[in-house]
Amino acid sequence: MLKFLLWCILLVLCWPLALVALVLYPLVWLLLLPFKLVGIAVGGALQLVWALVTLPARILRAF
């Protein structure tokens, strides 16, 4: 919603720039999508490593 309101303000202030932003936003999103997927994968791998590191402590705490 905030992005839409900012775009509306930009539309009032400078409509050609707002139209360029409207066209380029999906392209930039598509270009950044692989980086987001890599970030999700790296985050998952780090969580897995952390779970494996803390597994002995959790097992000992259970007894």
For this entry, give a set of tags.
single chain; about 60 residues; mainly alpha; about 0% strand
Describe this structure in words.
The chain has 63 residues and is mainly α. The chain has one domain. Helix content is 95%, strand content 0%. The protein has 2 helices and no strands. It has helices at residues 2-13, 15-62. Helix 1 (2-13) packs antiparallel against helix 2 (15-62). The chain is elongated. The N and C termini lie far apart (50 Å). The relative contact order is 0.06. The mean pLDDT is 94.
Give me the number of helical elements: 2
- What would you call the shape? elongated
Number of strands: 0
End-to-end separation in angstroms reads 50 Å
**Helix content bin:** over 70%
Compute the number of structural domains. Answer: 1
Largest sheet: none
Radius of gyration: 22 Å
The pLDDT mean sits at 94
- Our estimate of the beta-strand percent is under 5%
- Which spans of ≥5 residues are poorly predicted at pLDDT below 50? none
- SS-based class: mainly alpha
Succession of helices and strands: HH
Could you give a short description of this structure?
The chain is mainly alpha-helical and 63 residues long. It has 2 helices and no strands. The chain is elongated and about 65 Å long.
Secondary structure blueprint with pairings:
Elements: H1 2-13, H2 15-62
Helix pairs in contact: 1-2
